[in-house]
Predict the structure.
Amino acid sequence: MSVDVYLNFNGNCREAAEFYAEVFGTEKPQIMTFGEAPPNPEYPLPEEAKNLVMHTRLHIDGSNVMFSDVFPGMPFIAGNNISLAIVNKDEERIRSYFHKLKEGGTVNMELQETFWSKCYGSLKDKFGIEWQLSYDSEALRDEH
């Protein structure tokens, strides 16, 4: 069993999922829109919701990360209540992910040696999602 992460976006989920697929070298996301869901006559779908992402998923370094847009009119707060941590024993992969994710984002802590890792950094990406990237020579997850 693993804990999967679910991220909500405010209309730019498709762009975010495609960006993350490119950063992490995963398959292109399979996207289900609200318009593709079976219609419910009691709740007609607003036109602006039809192309929004109801669900998509990426497999990133051994974890499933799921994404959706919030339904129009639902409250939305950009990424301030979650951070995603990537711990990997491939230092070059950590460096590559960090440099791609920081494009258009804000670095909280540049990649550097800390007491827990010889290569650790944190940032908020251009979609407002917080990331922590850490090299660990004995990381349990050794995918790819």
Summary: DSSP finds two helices and eight strands in the chain. Helices lie at 13-24, 91-101.
